[in-house]
Design brief:
Blueprint lengths: L2 E10 L9 H4 E12 L2 E7 H4 L9 E11 L1 E7 L13 H13 L5 H17 L2 E7 L4 H14 L2 E5 L1 E2 L12 H15 L5 E7 L7 H13 L4 E6 L3 H10 L6 H7 L7 E5 L5 H10 L2 E4 L1 H6 L7 H6 L3 E4 L11 H13 L7 H8 L1 H6 L17 E4 L5 H8 L4 H11 L5 E6 L2 E5 L1 H6 L1
The structure holds guanine and fe (iii) ion.
Protein name: Guanine deaminase
EC number: 3.5.4.3
InterPro entries: Amidohydro-rel, Guanine_deaminase, Metal-dep_hydrolase_composite, Metal_Hydrolase, Metallo-dep_hydrolases
């Protein structure tokens, strides 16, 4: 090993088919020892069991008093929308026209893209998010800047340039042929470059002509190991619009499905108003969905049905969906997911919530063999949580009887103040200021 870390560790060690299985695979080691070799995990065990392996006790990094969990996975976010988060008053379609499109117009500029990429990745890391599936804008420059910045940090990131050729302002649309060419060049440049991967990113059906979707299908055939990332069934008006734009299709998902855009590496954001057949199609094709509670509440889109998602056996991860989402914090996102559950009489346990934010999200992105837990051989991406940073948290935490209650308090009261440090690829890439002083 090249690095030894002592602290309390929590993870879920296996992918599950029902939340009832989760407690069996939850691992909590109150005094643990994590060994790394470069960017990889060698082992996680109790301090007592592992201490004899240590070559030199003084070189152990001591995070005792902190809780270390796998890095959070954000399965749906728009980096260019960072600068318009908290835009007042509108629901999806008007919100896009009034706020989103004007902001996205700026990303033809490489300098602006580079500045916002750095800011965006800093927000992810300071919130404990180590992997994300990210929308750029229609401009290739936006994605070049984001991938360059993520590459320098060693982050595992999946992103893509938006593809759209109708129902958006002229300054944000392209021809299907341009979209194809530019996407192809980006795939050649970035896909499988280090820890980076490319996602074909048609914005959503309403901004895609049949010809554009044909180009997306062609790219997926030419590059079958790329991802597919888009929106699905978020807002009732949007769904009606899709039906009128694609009258020959059997509903919203069928538009994507007919162009063979469903599959193991396809991620559909929102999926709030699906019918039975659509859930079944997602399951049958191995497609995944992104649950974005803060966005769905903020835009008044509706309540995602977690119970149905489990019953239908559809892979699911958490998404912040910034800038329709109102926070980069996965902890806050889990807290809002709990409330969305409450409104439907679904009890989201802390164990389940942390699974969705880590290994479940990794699985939704088809990355569960690489990230999402402390399993030996996986990549060393993790978050050091300070479980109690405010007086309220300290008081409430002291009153918590076990790890389950502590995790629940953390996802209900926690936010970026609780992130003490974030590690990516075996390196500490972000530290809270008080930690810096202590170091
Ligand atoms: N549907 C199409 N584009 C968008 C977007 O930028 N944000 C959200 N939340 N939904 C969309
Ligand atoms: Fe979105």
């Amino acid at each position: 090993y090249t690095q030894a870390i002592r602290g309390s560790f929590f993870d879920i060690t296996a992918v599950v088919e029902t939340p009832l299985q989760l407690p069996d695979y939850a691992r909590y080691i109150e005094d643990g020892l994590l060994l790394l070799n470069g960017g990889d995990i060698v082992s996680l065990q109790s301090w007592e069991a592992g201490r004899h392996l240590l070559a030199d006790r003084s070189s152990v990094l001591d995070y005792r008093g902190k809780l270390i969990v796998p890095g959070f996975v954000d399965t749906h976010i728009h980096y260019p929308q960072t600068e318009m988060i908290a835009a007042y008053g509108e629901q999806l379609l008007e919100w896009l026209q009034q706020y989103t499109f004007p902001v996205e117009s700026q990303y033809h500029c490489p300098q602006h893209s580079a500045r916002m990429s750095a800011f965006f990745l800093h927000q992810l890391l300071s919130n404990g998010t180590t992997t994300a599936l990210v929308f750029g804008t229609v401009h290739p420059e936006s994605v070049d800047a984001l991938f360059s910045a993520a590459d320098r940090l060693g982050m595992r990131l999946i992103a893509g340039k938006v593809m759209m050729d109708r129902n958006a302002p002229d300054y944000l649309t392209e021809t299907p042929e341009q979209s194809y060419q530019q996407t192809r060049e980006l795939i050649e440049r970035w896909h499988n470059h280090g820890r980076l991967s490319y996602a074909l990113t048609p914005r959503f059906a309403p901004t895609s002509s049949p010809e554009l979707l044909g180009k997306v299908q062609q790219l997926k055939e030419e590059y079958p190991d790329t991802w597919l990332h888009t929106h699905l069934s978020e807002n009732p008006q949007e769904i009606e619009w899709v039906k009128s734009l694609f009258p020959d299709h059997n509903g919203y998902l069928d538009v994507y499905h007919q162009y063979q855009l469903t599959g193991r590496r396809s991620v559909f954001a929102h999926c709030i108003h699906l019918d039975e057949e659509e859930w079944d199609c997602l399951h049958a094709t191995g497609s995944a969905v992104a649950f974005c509670p803060t966005s769905n509440l903020f835009l008044g889109s509706g309540l995602f049905n977690l119970k149905t998602c489990w019953e239908k056996g559809v892979k699911m991860g958490m998404g912040t969906d910034v800038g329709a989402g109102t926070t980069f914090s996965m902890l806050q996102t889990l807290g809002e997911a709990y409330k969305v559950g409450q409104l439907q009489r679904y009890r989201l346990a802390a164990c389940e919530a942390f699974y969705h934010a880590t290994l479940g999200g990794a699985r939704a992105l088809d990355l569960d063999s690489r990230i999402g837990s402390f399993t030996a051989g996986k990549e060393a991406d993790f978050v050091v949580l300070d479980p109690a940073v405010s007086a309220l948290q300290q008081m409430r935490f002291a009153n918590s009887k076990d790890i389950w209650e502590k995790l629940f308090v953390l996802m209900t009261l926690g936010d970026d103040r609780n992130i003490a440090a974030t590690w990516v690829n075996g390196q500490c890439v972000w530290q809270a200021r008080s930690e810096e002083k202590a170091a």
